[in-house]
Amino acid sequence: MTGNVITLHGRGATRRRLPDEVASYVRELIISGEVRAGEFLRIEPIAEAVGVSNTPVREGMLALQSEGFVQLVPRRGFIVAPFTQQDIRDLFWTQAHLAGELAARAARKITAEQIARLEAILAEHEKAIAAGDEERIAGFGHAFHREINLAADSHRLTLLLNSAVQHVPNRFYATIEGQVAATRHAHPLLLDALRTGDAGEARALMQRHIAEGADHLVEALDERGLWSRWESAS
């Protein structure tokens, strides 16, 4: 990001550790409902889909086991763990409170330059929506939150938030009905609170914005029949 020129780098430019890529890929399979509770997750197809060897797949799956997304069945492999609506709401509750505090701190510290970058991100976000570019919609939505977190200047708290955010994939938010409209409404209000230095309003707006994200995701997955499929499989 330089001045008001916003760029989004491709995956290859900032590639994460291979086990992290695997974990992200499988999390998205689980939370999007493409795989269901009790279903075995085979190492080879995942390795092929992500473009890695079997070793980072196993490491990624072990990380997901520690997060409660998968379970290891001795001598058989990994299966998808049950994932409930309350699990999603708990993940978003954690994000909402951490992000809300960061937004409040940002309101007290944010600079004119950082405000200008947020304005530029909002403008690019609108262009992405007009173009129907889901990848850029999600990317600029993420960039807006990242800029607020940077403005908060609270490194440890930001690390905790990043850890929570990793549990909920970002890529398919732009496909969820209502989420884009909610973001278009919430982000300008957040920017106004940051401009005026209103920490309490920034905190409340951020918490509400993220909590609404949980509602949209739960509703979308319910419409896809995720919970009914998992109940019938149990």
Question: Could you give a short description of this structure?
Answer:
This is GntR family transcriptional regulator. This protein is mainly alpha-helical and 234 residues long.
Structure description:
- The protein has helices at about 20-30, 45-50, 55-65, 85-110, 110-130, 135-150, 155-165, 180-195, 200-225, 225-234; strands at about 40, 70-75, 75-80.
- The chain has a three-stranded antiparallel beta sheet with strand order 1-3-2.
- It has about 230 residues and is mainly alpha-helical.
- The chain folds into two domains: about 10-85, Orthogonal Bundle (Arc Repressor Mutant, subunit A), CATH 1.10.10.10; about 85-225, GntR ligand-binding domain-like (Four Helix Bundle (Hemerythrin (Met), subunit A)).
- It is built from ten helices and three strands; from the N terminus they run H-E-H-H-E-E-H-H-H-H-H-H-H.
- Helix 4 packs across helix 6.
